[in-house]
Amino acid sequence: MAGKYKYLTFEDRQKIEVWHARGDRPLEIAARLGVHTATIYNELKRGYVGELDGRQREIYKAERAQATVQEHFKRRGRTAATAGKSACDLAHCLQSLTASKSVR
What stretch of H or E contains 64? Predict the structure, then answer.
């Protein structure tokens, strides 16, 4: 597990849904998928639909977790306002550098 980072796929999430619904522990699920136990606990939180099953366990849905991940991917990186400002700052710096070199 050390040094091996990967995102869970939708298929991984579907497996988690089945195994969790059947009563498997997060430690067992993590071992099957080859990820850290904390990854499974975080994933279960991400896909929680706000209901409990017959055993009073939180219900996990792979579709809900995948939608949450996709939404977070959309919000990654710089905002449009920040990106435009940085590009202008970079252009200004480049102009300054080329102007100072042409003076020499």
Answer: helix 62-74
User: Is 42 buried (19+), middle (13-18) or exposed (0-12) by CB count in 10 A?
Assistant: middle
Grade residue 52 by pLDDT with cuts at 50, 70 and 90: confident
| Structure tokens given for 34 | 């080859």
Is 30 within 8 Å of 36 (Cβ atoms)? yes
Q: Looking at the predicted structure, is the pLDDT value of residue 48 above 80?
A: yes
**Eight-class DSSP state of 56:** S
9, burial (CB in 10 Å: exposed 0-12, middle 13-18, buried 19+):
exposed
| Domain assignments of the chain as residue spans, ordered by start | 10-103
